[in-house]
Specification:
The chain has two domains: about 70 residues, Glutaredoxin (3-Layer(aba) Sandwich); about 120 residues, Glutathione S-transferase Yfyf (Class Pi), Chain A, domain 2, CATH 1.20.1050. It contains eight helices and four strands.
Length: about 210
């Protein structure tokens, strides 16, 4: 079987989610560097892999995918290794709910509105940061309410929900406001510390981009 290929920048939040899934499954893969923020823009050849020019994209034995959620689920279901999705329908629905919530309400606020705005803008928009922090607080409060008892978000099993949340929160923690806010949510703070100790997290560590 050919080695899977992942296209994207190694500093990307969503590329990191896909990479963590591959690492947790113990799958060797090739990361093809692709910087969609480069001055020359997205290369024309890449649009055959992702027609919207985003990252990551994925290929395995001629089978192509884009969208991180689809890639992570294929990696879990298509390769041997520890299961990253629960079999219980209630827990699987909760996993998908957490992932959907982070994509819809957490990513933009935590990564772009707070971290990118603070780190990369010469004159940050303080109103945007404040708004992002309010949204982030709601996300962390809801994540706390959804978290099951046990070390991981769904309890004893590490799942795609953990792998999805970790890179987003890691980016948020690059700024003081993010660290201060997370400190108020002890369960999520302690959960993140456990994720950060995993080899999959360490092996995908990079100064992350917002993409």
């Amino acid at each position: 079987m050919a080695k899977p290929v992942l296209y994207g920048a190694d500093y990307s939040v969503y590329v990191r989610i896909a990479r963590m899934a591959l690492e947790e499954k113990g799958i060797g893969y090739e990361l093809v560097p692709l910087d969609i923020f480069a001055a020359e823009g997205v290369p024309a050849w890449y649009l055959e892999h992702h027609p919207f020019g985003r990252i990551p994209a994925f290929e395995h034995d001629g089978f192509r995918l884009f969208e991180t959620g689809a890639i992570a689920r294929y990696v879990d279901e298509g390769f041997p290794g520890p299961a990253l999705q629960p079999t219980d329908p209630y827990l699987r629905a909760r996993m998908n709910q957490i992932i959907g919530m982070l994509d819809a309400y957490g990513y933009r606020a935590m990564v772009w509105d707070v971290a990118v705005e603070r780190l990369e803008k010469t004159q940050p928009d303080e109103a945007l940061i404040a708004s992002g922090l309010r949204q982030a607080e709601t996300v962390l409060r809801v994540l706390t309410s959804l978290k099951a008892r046990g070390p991981w978000l769904l309890g004893d099993q590490l799942t795609l929900a953990d792998l999805h949340a970790a890179p987003i929160i890691a980016y948020f923690l690059k700024v003081a406001e993010g660290r201060d806010l997370l400190a108020r949510f002890a369960e999520i703070r302690d959960w993140f510390a456990r994720v950060a100790d995993r080899a999959s997290f360490a092996r995908t560590e990079k100064v992350a981009s917002a993409e």
